[in-house]
Amino acid sequence: MILVEHLTHIYAPGTPLALTSLEDVSLHIEEGEFVVLAGATGSGKSTLVQHFNGLLLPTAGRVLVGGRDTRDKKVRRDLWRTVGLLFQNPEQQLFEESVFAEVAFACRNLGLDEKTVAVRACRALEMVGLEPDRYRALSPFALSRGQQQLVALAGLLAYQPPVLVLDEPTSGLDPAAREHIWQLLKKLQQAGHTVVVITHHMEDAARFAGRVVVLHRGKIYRQGTPRQVFSDPGGLRAVGLDVPMPCELMYCLQQKGLPVKSGIITLDEAELELKNLAMG
């Protein structure tokens, strides 16, 4: 679905302010995958995903979406229909006077009739946990940051792009709302969507991702299943990345010489391992 080949991106190239954000990155995201991009601030995560719908163009290398090269202007013009991108800061993509108009905007651009637009917009608000009757007439700029994030997400879900690329979609949300959004994204992936999420919540990444890709200083540092990636807490901490608490706990016990397994990524697994340890 998304093929990144030897991608390099330099901001302000040829100037004294030139900054290399990505260097020779290659990555293949299959249709229907759930991929989490992780890494410290400044590792290149947001720059990478903005190439997926043509907001940024490669300085070198190329990005193909569904076999189409994003460097082609005609391809970029319609990429939004395929790849829905949620920005880390919702105020960067909210602009309508009401929540309903915001969520309905892309559907109207698809040329759908108003009845279908209304059904999709209300359904999308319900999906993210916002009651349509309560929120539809409100200004999105009168909402909390977490609610703005949900409105922006609803705007993507309403027009149903096959690829969802979400930059910190649960920032500003309480734990219950965060869990709801992760569960929703997993259901969308199971229904056939390709889901790519940037997050700093590694416990959530361990529970929901099929693959975790770790970036460090503009390059891919490690990738694999959550169990594979989080099996080396020390190495991940060295590149500024936290690990799920169960992994950290097992690592600390190992450092004290206790015979516990590596690759423990969930609380249930950690509980079982501790019971086995206690039983000797």
UniProtKB/TrEMBL annotation:
<keyword id="KW-0067">ATP-binding</keyword>
<keyword id="KW-0472">Membrane</keyword>
<dbReference type="InterPro" id="IPR003593">
    <property type="entry name" value="AAA+_ATPase"/>
</dbReference>
<feature type="domain" description="ABC transporter">
    <location>
        <begin position="2"/>
        <end position="242"/>
    </location>
</feature>
<dbReference type="InterPro" id="IPR003439">
    <property type="entry name" value="ABC_transporter-like_ATP-bd"/>
</dbReference>
<dbReference type="InterPro" id="IPR050095">
    <property type="entry name" value="ECF_ABC_transporter_ATP-bd"/>
</dbReference>
<dbReference type="GO" id="GO:0042626">
    <property type="term" value="F:ATPase-coupled transmembrane transporter activity"/>
</dbReference>
<dbReference type="InterPro" id="IPR015856">
    <property type="entry name" value="ABC_transpr_CbiO/EcfA_su"/>
</dbReference>
<protein>
    <submittedName>
        <fullName>Energy-coupling factor transport system ATP-binding protein</fullName>
    </submittedName>
</protein>
<dbReference type="GO" id="GO:0016887">
    <property type="term" value="F:ATP hydrolysis activity"/>
</dbReference>
<dbReference type="GO" id="GO:0043190">
    <property type="term" value="C:ATP-binding cassette (ABC) transporter complex"/>
</dbReference>
<keyword id="KW-0547">Nucleotide-binding</keyword>
<keyword id="KW-0813">Transport</keyword>
<dbReference type="GO" id="GO:0005524">
    <property type="term" value="F:ATP binding"/>
</dbReference>
<dbReference type="Pfam" id="PF00005">
    <property type="entry name" value="ABC_tran"/>
</dbReference>
<keyword id="KW-1003">Cell membrane</keyword>
<dbReference type="InterPro" id="IPR027417">
    <property type="entry name" value="P-loop_NTPase"/>
</dbReference>
<keyword id="KW-1278">Translocase</keyword>
<comment type="similarity">
    <text>Belongs to the ABC transporter superfamily.</text>
</comment>
